[in-house]
Design goal:
Layout: E1 27-29, H1 46-54, E2 65-70, E3 73-78, E4 81-82, H2 84-93, E5 100-106, E6 111-115, H3 116-132, E7 140-144, H4 149-160, E8 164-167, H5 174-184, E9 188-192, E10 195-197, E11 200-202, H6 204-212, E12 220-224, E13 237-239, H7 240-244, E14 256-257, E15 263-267, E16 275-279, H8 282-296, E17 303-306, H9 313-325, E18 329-334, H10 344-352, E19 356-359, H11 361-369, H12 373-376, E20 385-389, H13 395-405, E21 412-415, E22 435-437, E23 451-454, E24 466-471, E25 481-482, H14 486-494, E26 505-509, E27 515-520, E28 524-527, E29 530-533, H15 534-542, E30 547-557, E31 561-570, H16 578-591, E32 600-603, H17 617-624, H18 629-632, H19 641-657
Parallel strand pairs: 5-18, 7-8, 7-9, 8-15, 9-12, 12-13, 17-18, 17-19, 19-20, 20-21, 31-32
Antiparallel strand pairs: 1-22, 2-3, 4-14, 5-6, 10-11, 15-16, 16-25, 23-24, 24-26, 26-27, 28-29, 30-31
Helix pairs in contact: 2-3, 2-4, 2-9, 3-4, 5-6, 8-9, 11-13
The protein binds 5'-O-[(S)-ethoxy(hydroxy)phosphoryl]adenosine (WTA).
Residues 267, 312-314, 389-392, 414-419, 442, 503-505, 517, 520, 526, 531 line the site of 5'-O-[(S)-ethoxy(hydroxy)phosphoryl]adenosine.
Length: 658
């Protein structure tokens, strides 16, 4: 693979490449054109460092306290007054109102463009419409929309008037929506008649109707006409276009405290119910503004394309707030990246002369499978920077991205972060400094963040040894808490180690200080970059009347990263049939969403458990991967080898039966 790579060469603008000399496959990037002189500026007084970054945003009033740290609760820029929508829109409108904000393309080829001025006007209209429906500062509004400009409009309209937005990915099912809307007590839901995916219309409004039929506290559903499929309107439904038809296109941005909540985003953890991650305003914006600039080295002339859906945190931080706060022009796409042709993404990059591409390892693995001819037959010469997020990237895929897509000219920024961290915490920062890249490592923490890799007792492990990643100082993008559950916030993230944030990932720090992420250390799966809890999947199974018990695990998958394997124990008297298997897969799709459909479903007589009743998940994994008992006999701490052997044999026997 290495031999087929083009030789890195010098590009004078903003990125300097040097020949790999010391280490195999090391690529050096970055020039450091930012005003932060050296990384060491950020290591001394971190709070002061972040204050200097916050000062680049627009504030109605400056803060009096940069950080109020009452572990584990951090409040950033206390006393400061700001507004996310003002920073994302007005700041650019005052300078370059006609700058293109969004160039949108639909799966069916439709195109739309919005300037910053136009976006501000749409946002203001919807903000006024929300006010006319009685929505007030601090209320929650759920947004369930496909990847269309109105999704951005909806978020910024909420932010403009101090309403907390909570987006639900448009691939989630009615039951998932119901749980989230119930938890956030959203008064209003914003949706559309439908969305396009692989040539099909997903009937979003129908899903919302099913989700909220018993939820009386939902006062209104705002429905956007997008796909024009027939829908039924009830008394509480309002048509978006009618609502904004005659309304004023000017709406002052609410002057909000820096610590005012900006959004809730639900994410999976180790419990059956998703957690409502709550982000604030001033700290979050500072983190996203800074990292977007450092990592993507954004220029006025750039055409930025992030393929993430706004239903996930990457879309919140690096489609909505990051690019817009910098007045960037971006491509927004509704649909599958390989539809109707597998080369769709490369055609779009060539069509719009995209300069920065930010995508996932799952997408890259899929593109790689399609072969090199597709990217090679499109003009990708506009690209200058490539990014990846969401899962560890295999070095082979990294090299393919670098060689075939970037033609050896474009550095890769591998960004590690989480819904909870708000923005990237580990990444190369080409807008700031030069660093040799190593394929598969996200390199080092971003400035102002300090990390460590520790053992079970919180002691730093030796270089090149596996441990748990921890964050050792508060950072501005960190979550405020979990919505309505401070206790859970403390337990999930801050109880494993004292005063250290525990993200739940395994990592290795090598001798050069580079961090290599090794995947989740808890019962959370990453399937095609989507975060799913095994407990969430298991409780979805058990909610079916045929199921007595279920256990789920993930095994490596060459495209999706992880595949979902499920083991199901049926209730007495229920006959295991292939039809029932299909029914259960559909049940999961309906309860969580199509992204959660298991790749394998096995009926078993009983689940292998330790004496204390814990499911031997690694044994299930070994079984699914067809490994031998010898490979796993040391893995289950609480069980004896004999117990494992018996459980394994029983499992195998019952597997063969169905
Ligand atoms: C994983 C996505 C390796 C990790 C922004 C983390 C990564 C979880 C990377 C958070 C990366 C994210 N390399 N692993 N560059 N980025 N992860 O909340 O396990 O959907 O804990 O946020 O994704 O997933 P989430």
């Amino acid at each position: 693979m290495k031999d087929s790579l083009p030789t890195p060469f010098e590009r004078t603008f903003f990125l300097t490449y040097t020949q790999p000399t010391v280490l195999d496959s090391v690529y050096t990037i970055g020039l450091g054109n930012n005003d932060l002189k050296t990384r060491s500026d950020s290591n001394g007084n971190r709070v002061k460092f972040w204050e200097a970054q916050a000062a680049k945003l627009y504030w109605f009033e400056k803060w009096h306290t940069a950080l109020d740290w009452n572990p584990p609760f951090a409040r950033w820029f206390v006393g400061g007054k700001t507004n996310a929508s003002y920073n994302a829109l007005d700041v650019t409108v005052q300078k370059t109102p006609n700058k293109k904000a969004i160039i949108w393309e639909g799966e069916d080829g439709k195109k739309r463009e919005l300037t910053y001025q136009e976006l501000l006007s749409e946002v203001s209209k919807l903000a006024n419409a929300l006010k006319s429906l009685g929505v007030q500062k601090g209320d929650r509004v759920t947004v369930y929309l496909p990847m269309i400009p109105e999704l951005i409009v909806a978020l910024l309209a909420c932010a403009r008037i101090g309403v907390i937005h909570t987006v639900i990915f448009s691939g989630f099912s009615a039951k998932s929506i119901k749980d989230r809307v119930e938890d956030s007590k959203s008064k209003i839901i914003i949706t559309s008649d439908g969305g396009l995916r692989r040539g099909n219309i997903i009937k979003l409004k129908d899903v919302v109707d099913e989700a909220i039929q018993d939820l009386d506290f939902v006062e209104n559903v705002i429905v956007l006409e997008h796909t024009k499929n027939p829908i039924t309107l009830t008394k509480r439904d309002k048509k978006w276009h009618e609502l904004v038809g005659t309304i004023s296109s000017s709406c002052d941005a609410e002057i909000l405290d820096s610590t005012h909540p900006l959004y809730i985003l639900y994410t999976s953890g180790t419990t059956g119910k998703p957690k409502g991650v709550l982000h604030g305003t001033g700290g979050y914006l500072t983190h996203v503004y800074s990292t977007f600039q450092w990592i993507f080295d954004i220029k006025d002339s750039d055409v930025y394309f992030c393929t993430a859906d706004i239903g996930w945190v990457t879309g919140h931080s690096y489609v909505v707030y990051g690019p817009l706060m910098h007045g960037a022009t971006q491509i927004m796409y509704e649909g599958a990246l390989d539809f109707p042709t597998p080369g769709r993404i490369w055609e779009m990059i060539s069509r719009y002369k995209v300069t920065i591409l930010y995508t996932t390892p799952t997408a890259l693995r899929m593109f790689m499978k399609f072969g090199d001819d597709l990217p090679n037959s499109n003009d990708l010469s506009s690209l200058r920077l490539l990014g990846t997020v969401g899962e560890p990237i295999n070095p082979q895929v990294w090299k393919w991205y670098f060689g075939i897509i970037g033609k050896g000219r474009c550095p890769i920024v591998d960004t590690w972060w989480q819904t909870e961290t708000g923005g990237a915490l580990i990444s190369p920062v080409p807008g700031l400094e030069t660093i040799p890249l190593k394929p598969g490592s996200a390199t080092r923490p971003v400035p102002g963040v300090s990390l460590s890799v520790v053992d079970e007792h919180g002691k730093q492990v030796e270089p090149d040894s596996k441990g748990y990643l921890v964050v050792t100082n508060p950072w501005p993008g960190m979550l405020l808490t979990l919505w309505g559950d401070d206790e859970k916030y403390k337990t999930v993230y801050w109880s494993k180690y004292k005063n250290m944030y525990y993200p739940g990932d395994y990592a290795i720090q090598d001798k050069d200080g580079y961090i290599w992420m090794l995947g989740r250390a808890d019962d959370v799966l990453k399937v095609a970059g989507h975060r799913l809890g095994t407990a969430e999947l298991e409780s979805a199974f058990v909610s079916n009347k045929a199921v007595a018990e279920a256990a789920v695990c993930g095994i490596p998958h060459d495209v999706k990263g992880e595949a979902i394997i499920s083991f199901v124990v049926l209730k007495d008297g229920v006959i295991p049939t292939s039809q029932l298997k299909e029914e259960l897969v559909n049940h999961i799709k309906k309860t969580i969403g199509p992204i959660a459909a298991p790749d394998q479903l096995h009926f078993v007589k009983k689940l292998p458990k330790t004496r204390s009743g814990k499911i031997m998940r690694r044994l299930l994994k070994a079984m699914a991967k067809n490994e031998q008992i010898g490979d796993i006999s040391t893995l289950e701490d609480e069980a004896s080898v004999n117990e494992i052997k018996t459980a394994f044999a029983e499992l195998k026997q019952s597997l063969g039966k169905f």
